[in-house]
Design brief:
3-stranded mixed sheet; about 20% helix; 4 helices; Purple Acid Phosphatase, chain A, domain 2
Length: about 120
């Protein structure tokens, strides 16, 4: 992440906005995650991804994140929503119109699992 990305984030995200980060926030970074995180606006919630383990060992996650979880379930008032870094084949309320939001797959439609993941954009 560089200055341009931080500026773009802060233009879109105001200090009181809630942001859910779907994991893999930093990967092979040479700058401390704390240095970046202190500059990013918003009340951040992290869904742990497979590339988050190393930087999380060195960062002050309690200071920078409202929550750090593997999965979160909540309601926006109209819908129940499940967040997880990984796509799930089933989740609480799947047959009742709930939503599943995930990261990890990077729109990799050629992967074997792609036939099981229905993407809406």
């Amino acid at each position: 992440m560089d200055t341009a990305l931080i500026e773009s984030w802060n233009t879109a995200v105001k200090p009181n906005n809630t942001v859910y980060i779907m994991g893999d926030l930093f990967f092979r970074n040479t700058v401390s995650a704390d240095d970046y995180l202190q500059r990013l606006n918003g009340k951040k919630h992290l869904l742990i991804g497979n590339h988050d383990k190393d930087w999380m060992k060195k960062a002050d996650t309690v200071r920078h994140f409202e929550s750090v979880d593997r999965m979160i379930e909540f309601s926006d008032g109209a819908h129940k929503i499940t967040l997880c870094h990984y796509p799930l084949m089933t989740w609480n309320g799947v047959a009742k119109g709930t939503y599943m939001i995930y990261g990890h797959v990077h729109s990799n439609t050629g992967a074997k699992y792609a036939q099981f993941v229905k993407c809406r954009r």
